[in-house]
């Protein structure tokens, strides 16, 4: 699955044009592919279809679709949202539409007629804007999008629903909601990034005749995580091995009132095959953990009067840190001066890869620049509210610009950033973005994130590089949750139960 930005798409089209496929042919193929997709789903004979078109090439695709749908027996009308088209190929195609006597309406001048047509419409084709759209919809397009969004009709978007920035999924107010989106040649980041992805409905990627070699020189920066890639990152367990072969994870988690977070993070690490997991937790909660975690070992730590780790525990942690092959800090440790001091110490002193989750991230908000002092790779696993806190903005402000903000953050602080949620995004220090499409709303329950943190840290402890560990953890956590939801339902599944399904996945892949 190839994901390209709008600029990269232009380069691909240019390469195709140089190799002999004209822009006009690409537009013809795009419109034809969209019509084929519609015909596979709906018998269009005698159906009333409105094609909303913009003045760029997305509108041109719409004119081609209108002509071919008319040839297929549909009752087609075209609506010009921004007046007459401006690009050469779109102009040629509106002229072909007119030679077929398809009626063409102007959104503003013909508003009364359009209002009547909207009472009885079966299919709407959204060909207002595609990859050329930036910013907010202007007044005309807003009005058109509102008409599309309130009509009772199946909505097919060409390339992208109008009102979405292809490269980062930024949404304009009133962006079109489609039932189906037919992407041309390659998928774009916006097809994956929520909430834009929700506007796309069911997505298909259509071949528009561009030869494979036209994509070769494109330097991709946005990838979809695949199961095949995940299992190439996870080595087979050698026959002649012992627990020392699979790493030692020092997991600094848990506090009074949040022991579950500590427990789930240990289980996550154990279920991905970590050789030895040490849970370092406040002394008073160790007995609770020891009763539930029979395969873990424990480091009882000095604690403060709130039942969380105290600063006094730093020398104890420092000793254990020397032996660890990875360190996880943060699941349920609480957020106070003591836990902040411990987090800062770990960041400055860990020589092994480090994963910072939950309250570890909250602690970082006090002094984010400490990340520059890290000696080893760092992975951060915030949910959107934690990420927003790190950036000092609101969650809403984060969500509308999460691709850019996430990318900038990972590059600036040289960390692997796992921004959790539906379609979790992983940003690398090199500026690459990975998107994960496994997982479901059954994970939207307390404890899911602790399991994920343990899984990623467990892979890191086994020597898998930070970025690949994040990729493996996020994918497998979501895939196991999908299997778990299939047997126990999204509503009832408990995060801890997905660990059983994780076993099935490893079994299927001979691990
Ligand atoms: N290259 C090719 O030959 C091929 C391209 N293909 C197709 O073309 C699409 C890309 O075409 P494109 O580059 O012409 O851009 P497109 O999506 O039509 O939008 C441009 C229009 O949007 C407008 N606009 C922008 N922002 C706006 C805003 N905030 N509010 C309102 N208007 C706004 C902008 O107006 P302007 O700002 O210039 O006034 C301009 O009129 C691509 O997605 C695919 O479908 C295929 O046919 C295969 C061959
Ligand atoms: N609707 C959803 N679809 C897919 N994954 C989800 C959804 N909601 C939550 N998740 C996943 O569940 C986990 C929740 O993490 P987090 O919010 O930190 O939970 P907690 O801190 O309670 O353990 C993340 O991995 C996130 O990606
Ligand atoms: K569109």
UniProtKB/TrEMBL annotation:
(6S)-NADPHX binds at residues 57-61, 130-136, 159, 261, 332, 383, 450. This is Bifunctional NAD(P)H-hydrate repair enzyme. Homotetramer. GO terms for molecular function: ADP-dependent NAD(P)H-hydrate dehydratase activity; ATP binding; metal ion binding; NAD(P)HX epimerase activity. Bifunctional enzyme that catalyzes the epimerization of the S- and R-forms of NAD(P)HX and the dehydration of the S-form of NAD(P)HX at the expense of ADP, which is converted to AMP. This allows the repair of both epimers of NAD(P)HX, a damaged form of NAD(P)H that is a result of enzymatic or heat-dependent hydration. Residues 226-509 form the YjeF C-terminal domain. Transmembrane segments: none annotated. The keyword Metal-binding applies. K(+) binds at residues 58, 126, 162. It catalyses: (6R)-NADPHX = (6S)-NADPHX; (6S)-NADHX + ADP = AMP + phosphate + NADH + H(+); (6R)-NADHX = (6S)-NADHX; (6S)-NADPHX + ADP = AMP + phosphate + NADPH + H(+). It comes from Hydrogenoanaerobacterium saccharovorans. AMP binds at residues 420-424, 449. InterPro entries: CARKD (IPR000631), Nnr (IPR030677), Ribokinase-like (IPR029056), YjeF_N_dom (IPR004443), YjeF_N_dom_sf (IPR036652). Its cofactor is K(+); Mg(2+). Belongs to the NnrE/AIBP family. Residues 9-216 form the YjeF N-terminal domain. Pfam families: Carb_kinase (PF01256), YjeF_N (PF03853). Binds 1 potassium ion per subunit. The keyword ATP-binding applies. One of its GO terms (biological process) is nicotinamide nucleotide metabolic process. Its EC number is 4.2.1.136, 5.1.99.6. The gene is nnrE. Keywords: ATP-binding, Isomerase, Lyase, Metal-binding, Multifunctional enzyme, NAD, NADP, Nucleotide-binding, Potassium.
